[in-house]
Amino acid sequence: MVNIDIGIDLGTANTVIYIKDKGIVVNQPSVVAYEIGTNNIVAVGNKAKKMIGKTPEEIEVVRPIRKGVISAATLTERMLKAYVKGAMEKRKIWGKPSICVCVPSGVTSVERRAVEDAVMRTGAKNVYIIQEPFAAAVGAGIEVDSSKGYMLVDIGAGTTDIAIVSKGSITSSKSIKIAGDDFDDAIIRYMRKRHNILLGYVSAEQLKMEIGSVYPREKDAVAVAKGKDLVRGLPVKLNVKSSEMIEAMQEIADQIVDAVKSTLETASPEFVADIAEYGIVLTGGGSKIYGIDKLIHEKTGVKTRLVSNAEFAVAVGAGTSNKYIKEDDEDENVELWEINDFE
Question: How do residues 282-291 score in pLDDT, each as one tens digit?
């Protein structure tokens, strides 16, 4: 087994870092603010996110990770350096740390290499890369060593990863670039079309977190949407019901459900029987949207449950997956493994 000092979930929306015996030590937005002319970093994380839509022309705020892959390598590297440094201060780690980081199951070899390079430049001794749904399964406490098949659906901000895990590996997987950010976009489109109100992305995300729903609630929840009236161009506030959010988010939710159904349809009868017995496990911040578990259950007939540490399961799994990663005898510095290689 390898030694893992730090586990990282390098997410589209948030970067989460886990350290053994300390738990989650970093949970910050994957956002960077920098000066356009000098490329000097102005802020990262929560401070940078608060600057979205409020900066002068010379400062730009970006999310350097899009749909689960790095879109701005230098900014990602500098953001990671800040977060890893903060994580190491939580617990004294002598020398360079060994870091395990996760990638969506559908990334290309070039995209995997970009993640590996970015993490290596933070000062890591070794970088291990595993697929997000496997890490999520480990972090969720699933018995991944069992001969039984377990289905894991990890709904992040940029991607939804669906996998069947058995005997310490992923037997089949599917990754779609439909996830939490798409719910935000859907809310913005709905509010513009139905109420003639333009919402910013931060406001749309807040509305999603407060009353986002893909299944009817027993009682409608209400939240205040704050945006700009497209006719008058003035600030406006409007009470919005959770039942409206169902209409706004339905198309995106249906695409996620269809991907789950597709994975079930291609699974072997033996695995389907196991999944029917144990149920489908949901992880990721997007899985906390109200009713996603109920909707999947209704559409597939398979009981579905949300784990208690949904938004942290990937990072926890990355930090505790050492028994599933093998050393590369030919390269003691950096190695890149796919979980499927261990079958």
Answer: 999 999 999 9
* DSSP-based three-state secondary structure for 153: strand
Longest dimension (CA), the chain: 67
Contacts of 152 (CB under 8 A, 6+ apart): 133, 136, 137, 140, 142, 161, 162, 163, 164, 165, 280, 281, 283
**β partners of residue 162:** 153, 174
More confident residue, 91 or 150: 150
pLDDT greater at residue 164 or residue 326: 164
Strand pairing report for 280-283 and 150-155: parallel
Question: For residue 126, what is the enclosing H or E element?
Answer: strand 126-131
pLDDT tens-place string over residues 40-74: 999 999 999 999 989 999 999 999 999 988 999 99
pLDDT of 332 higher than 70: no
Q: What ranges make up the beta strands (E) of 245-320? A: 280-283, 304-306
Look up residue 152 and give its two tokens: 């894991």
Contact 185, 174 (CB under 8 A): no
Count of CA atoms in the C-beta half-sphere (13 A) of 257 = 21
**Cα dist from 285 to 15, 24, 129, 159, whole Å:** 12, 15, 21, 11
Determine contact, residues 165/134, Cβ cutoff 8 Å.
Answer: yes
Q: Mind listing the pLDDT tens digit for each residue in 189-202?
A: 999 999 999 999 99
Residue 184 and residue 205 in contact, taking contact as beta carbons nearer than 8 Å: yes
Dihedral angle of Cα 174, 159, 291, 219, to the nearest 10 degrees: -160
- Predicted confidence at residue 197, as pLDDT, reads 97
